[in-house]
Amino acid sequence: MAAPAKTLLDLVEATDNIPLDFDFTTLYRLYLSDDPRPHGILTPSNVARLPWTPDFKINHSDRTVHLIDTSAGASPGPAFSASLQRIVDACLSQKIFPQLNGQHSEHFRVLGANYPVTLERYVSPLFGTVSLGAHMTAYVGSGRDMKIWVAKRSAKIFTYPGKLDTSVAGGVKAGDSPLECIVAESDEEASLDRDFVRQNVVATGMVSYMGNSRRNDTIQPVVLYVYDLQTPEDMILKPQDDEVESFTLMTVDEIFEAMLGGKFKTNCCAIMIDFFVRHGIVTEENEPNYLELITRLRRRLPVPLAPSKNTASS
After folding, report:
1. What is the pLDDT of residue 156?
2. What is the pLDDT of residues 207-222, one digit of tens each?
3. Start and end of every Nudix hydrolase domain (predicted)?
4. Which positions ≥6 away from 235 have C-beta within 8 Å?
């Protein structure tokens, strides 16, 4: 179990755990061909370990990694994706990174690229490209008296086994929208009717942060789309896959106690705090770190989140 936290800000800082004044020039930056904007950030140790191919030009003096366009005049997206995939395949076949568990994973898009570029989810932290996810908080009632559906992760799941989680969450795969991710995960994880979710879910913004995994020596920007779903009192969330062990309706006070006690998956605390701010439960009057909490929940990231203004993705 994680060490207990003293404040809500402690919980946010455990997720957004890169100092605000961090010098990103100490890291390597990943560039896509002629795009002058970095699309990933890599630690020196991972640059040294990754099995680079001739498709990549590494400059150690200015700490840059340039992915060369091998498309021969076609749209660069598939060529970029193929070059990245060759690195992924080599990582797995050579068993370079134990945290990959020897497994392929879903393809996620490289957010902000001028052309559709994809990279496997498990490998994306090594390249420091944006991790894109979606979380939904399902709740009954309103205000301080509301109750929230909290998932307990399976004890057999690869990451954060047995931890408490938001009602529904998932990574946004390449080709999916955040909304379609939530609709699908609501069905697969919580047995919620897809049409009900699609008609009643409310998009409420996003949470962004910079996450540092010291165990794997990775630094990754993260964007999480946030959704709310108010459910009828007689609607029950039930596990439907092997990732969730159970669902429990918890009071606001029970959730605060569980978060501060280290029982939640780390980044889910940021989602819950954002929910409590938006619903007027955490306010300027009762939270001494109110303004810093809000700003830390929407951190400016060192990589682009959209294509260049004058470039149309194809």
Report:
1. 83
2. 999 999 988 899 999 9
3. 131-274
4. 192
Return the higher-pLDDT residue of 254 and 6: 254
pLDDT digits (tens, 9 = 90+) for 53-107: 999 999 999 999 999 999 988 889 999 999 999 999 999 999 999 989 889 999 9
Helix (H) or strand (E) holding 87: helix 76-94
d(Cα 132, Cα 110) in Å, to the nearest integer?
9
The DSSP bridge partners found for residue 169 are 135
The per-residue pLDDT for 313 is 45
Phi and psi dihedrals of 272, rounded to 5?
Answer: -65, -40
| Cβ atoms within 10 Å, residue 40 | 26
For the segment(s) 8-19+131-296, the CATH number from 3.10.450.50, 3.90.79.10, 3.40.50.720, 3.50.50.60 is: 3.90.79.10
> Which residues, other chains included, contact 231 with Cβ-Cβ below 8 Å and sequence gap of 6+?
138, 139, 140, 149, 237
CA distance 17 to 3: 15
3-state helix, strand, coil in the chain (%, to 5): 30, 25, 45
- H-helix segments, 3-75: 8-15, 44-49
CB 105 within 8 A of CB 159: no
Q: How far apart are CA 66 and CA 68, in angstroms?
A: 6
- Residue 25 is which amino acid? T
